[in-house]
Amino acid sequence: MSDSAHATNGSAAAVENGSEAAAMDDTDAADGADISGDTDATADASGAYTFDDLSVVMGTYNEEEAIGTVLDDIDEVTDGKAEVVCVDGSSDRTPEIAREHGATVIEQEPQGYGVAVSEAILTPDRPVVVTTDCDDTYPMEALPEFLAEINDGADVVSGDRLYHGADAMPAFNRFGNHAFAALASLLMGERVHDTTTGMRAYRRDVVEEIGWTENTGLSAELLIRPLMRGYDVRERPIRYAERLGETKLDPIGGGAAIAKSIVTVCLEEQLRRF
């Protein structure tokens, strides 16, 4: 495998050179993709996508401790040009804080992660959609590089939390995420490194053309189906921070549901090829 974060023809790749990892931070570009930390995603006369073409979406549930910070970060990085959509089932001040920060809030009864995120990714009409979580674990400063990968031809850009170690993640969760990636890689016949990351960028036609079926396991499905259908999927190392607020996921029950989703989706996509 090359030292590039660039993968094409339905394969996913991540930077694997250890010395590069030590030197790279979240604003660095992968060598093989035409990305620079100096990317001006707000002023491009070439017809490339800019922040005016970007929607950042998330499912939110009782995240009043973190949501304001996340939205401030998005606003700062994108100069206030990115659209933000929150699909919310909270009983606290999360939706109120989101609206105060200019986000579009779609309220729904709590039905699980996948239901909320599916609604979030299908609601905006801008051509590039980025999913993230609302707990301040993901680096919004990586948005220019994700957008640059899309402009370089990627259909999906997936943030690999595990590349840098994800020390802020509980050890049990970290082990589980490595296991999910190994399981998906085995079933797909393609190496992937982080199947359950919440931070990805998609071209709109990808999210519109694929029928999403999973709930707890939607994050894995959002990677597996595009990859197995031959889309240009790229994994990009990102830093993962300690979450603000309490986690809502049961690590045992949720982990079992994710593993089941990985097996189900991989088998469905294998059968679809016949």
Automatic annotation (TrEMBL):
Q: Out of the domains of life, which is the source?
A: Archaea
InterPro entries per record: DPhHxTase (IPR054887), Glyco_trans_2-like (IPR001173), Glycosyltransferase_2 (IPR050256), Nucleotide-diphossugar_trans (IPR029044)
Q: Where is this region: Disordered?
A: 1-21
Q: Which Pfam families match?
A: Glycos_transf_2 (PF00535)
Q: Where is the composition biased (Low complexity)?
A: 10-21
Q: Which Gene3D superfamilies match?
A: Spore Coat Polysaccharide Biosynthesis Protein SpsA, Chain A (3.90.550.10)
Limits of the Glycosyltransferase 2-like domain: 55-211
In its UniProt entry, what is this protein called?
A: Glycosyltransferase family 2 protein
Q: Which organism is it from?
A: Halorubrum ruber
Q: What is the lineage of its organism?
A: Archaea, Methanobacteriati, Methanobacteriota, Stenosarchaea group, Halobacteria
